[in-house]
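Team,

Forwarding the record for the chain on the shared tracking sheet. I've put the sequence and predicted structure together so nobody has to dig through attachments.
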Amino acid sequence: QAKRLNGLPDYHQAGLIGLTCFMSFLILFLTVLLHEFGHCAGAKLVGGRVDRILLWPLGGLAFCSSGGGAKGDLLVALAGPLTHAPQYLVWLGFLQLFLRCQQQLGHWAEPLQGLCRSAMQLQILLAVFNLLVPVYPLDCSQVIIALCRLCGASARMAAIF
């Protein structure tokens, strides 16, 4: 039963939930974008090129080439998931700040701390998911192909594996 103020429902909780959902979507979008920027930076680092980044409901795809052979491909594949470590640390820093400023934040402290915790969990989840699920085009499949090529398999045989 919602509290009523002057005969009207108290929409504070509903507004807070809506704002939290919007912020969670924004955090997910920025996390995926930074992950794809990581792939692009890896490609540039090994002399490759970047064509574009596609963001869609199932994640993102960086259309880039390494130009650095199997080692370059491995670096490009790992560069995306590696972006989650600094992102995790940034959210941890925000969480610690919000914990220290709890009194000043008032009723905003709990939702902000919850967003930080969720963002930290998201970083772990996406890094693990991308590195442990060997389904093309996820990063794990790209890492496996690059490692097979480093061990002497042809690009075609590595892709079939």
